[in-house]
Amino acid sequence: MVEEIVNTSNSKKATNNRPKSVYSWNVTDVQKWLRRHCSDYYQLYAENFIQHDITGRTLLRMNDNSLLRLGITNDVHREAIWRQILKLRLKTDIMEIRDMQRRNTNNMFYDYSIA
User: Least C-beta-crowded within 10 Å: which of 19, 35, 74, 82?
Assistant: First the structure.
């Protein structure tokens, strides 16, 4: 019986291939994102992101002025990083909307099955 529970929980993890929510990213996750999406500027600004303890939640709330205060004074660099943040916000918003739609669909099915 215990094995069945363990196998069930493992299979749920295996079928859930969704990426970790940006809101739950830690500083290391942000560093990975920065390296992957802003590779031209990673060496210049990675330490700034670490020193300011930039997490996923913080990253999504940043704006041009935040990047300037973070020490990214070069307009071209700041604009490129800002563009990547905007893409990340959009992707995150789309995933949240899909999750809401899925929950609503599941709730509707549940409501009809009770009746």
Answer: 19
